[in-house]
Amino acid sequence: MDIKSLSLLNFRNYSHLDIKFSNKLNIFIGNNAQGKTTLLESIYLLAISKSHKTSKDKDLIKFNESYSKVCTVLKKSDLELKLEIIISNQGKKVSINNVEKKKISEYIGTFNVVMFAPEDLDIVKRDPINRRKFLDIEIGQTSSIYIHNLNQYNKILKQRNEYLKSTQINKTIDFPYLDILTEQLAIYAEKILNKRIEFIKKLNVYANKIHEHISNYHEKLYLEYISSFSRDLSKLNLNQIIEVYKKNYNTDLLKGSTQMGIHRDDFRLFVNDIDVSIFGSQGQQRTTALAIKLSLIDFIKDETNFYPIVLLDDVLSELDDLRQSQLLDCIQEKVQTFVTTTNISGIKKEIIDKSDIFFIENGNIINKKEGGNFDKQ
């Protein structure tokens, strides 16, 4: 699967851009704040239907413009697909081959991306909410059922929390009604939990292999899912989940919200049996985050039969020259990759010779290097 072209109109600092890609490795080079990351953001948007930089779609519209449009032509096996997203004050429209999709779930999954950006270190270093977000986005890319189950869970969770708060005001409790909400919540909790556990198991295989390669075979990586229901995940079933919820009725009623569930779960990361989130060095945390994100390449391939597009946003500056080359060696033959950087001096010449290099300045491509030749834009 390859992106053949990308078109932007009124997107961030780009008034208009048409760009074509011919190689597996494409490098956007330029100083900071010139628009390199915006190009990767547009590709991510086309895959996920959301930006990785902002939760507000309107932020993507160029200042003083009324709408923004992002379009790509994607080659998938023998098919060419045109994907388009238009964002305006009226909302967001997505289409495939000029046919508008009424539901985002009908659009997501047309192609997949794996993005690594400096803020992805939050997966390792920050709060559990960052790791849950990672789980939901990455599993959701390959499973529309997971997205449905998660939406239903959040909907029932909101209803349950609203009811718990109301009991503090009304001073009355309808336990049969609370039982119904709890049992409905547990049904979706079990489905989401099982999918997450399956995902973590697969990631363990892929991520450790990549981590060993990047660390020059000095370190081993292991991920462990932490459920708020029980430490023994092998014995968890629907009835046990319902029982755990019911045992916590008093706490939930006192707090006015649901204190246990998949919305409070987490996973831990161990490097050589040490919790890297707490005790790992900056280098170990960076390598761990990179290995986890890159492990998604094989996960997505196994789930969809297609390799994803890989987006590396300013990642090379975080790695020494050896690890830069190890990283690009690891992925360049498998997948189409887009890289942003301010400097390519640490990348091996044979890798650069196989790459297209686009020089970005103030939202424009000022020239392009392809096979050693420079083309003015």
Write a structural description:
This protein has 377 residues and is an alpha+beta fold. The chain folds into two domains: 1-112 and 308-377, Rossmann fold, CATH 3.40.50.300; 127-305, RecF/RecN/SMC, N-terminal domain (Glutathione S-transferase Yfyf (Class Pi), Chain A, domain 2, Up-down Bundle). Helix 3 (128-142) packs across helix 4 (144-170) and helix 5 crosses helix 6 (238-247). The chain starts with a strand and ends with a strand. It has eleven helices and 16 strands.
**Helix content range:** 40-55%
Q: Low-confidence parts, pLDDT < 50 over ≥5 residues?
A: none
Helical/strand content category: alpha+beta
Q: In the CATH classification, which architecture of the largest domain applies?
A: 3-Layer(aba) Sandwich
CATH superfamily of the largest domain: P-loop containing nucleotide triphosphate hydrolases
Shape: globular
Largest pleated sheet: 7 strands, mixed
CATH topology of the largest domain: Rossmann fold
Q: Which CATH first-tier class of the largest domain would you pick? A: Alpha Beta
Rounded to an integer in angstroms, the radius of gyration calculated over CA atoms is 23 Å
Number of helices: 11
- Secondary structure: number of strands: 16
Strand arrangement across the biggest beta sheet: 8-12-13-3-14-15-16
How many angstroms separate the termini? 26 Å
Q: What's the number of domains? A: 2
| SSE string, helices as H and strands as E | EEEHEEEEEHHHHEHHEEHHEHEHEEE
How confident is the prediction overall: mean pLDDT? 89
Tell me what portion of residues adopts beta-strand conformation. Answer: 25-35%
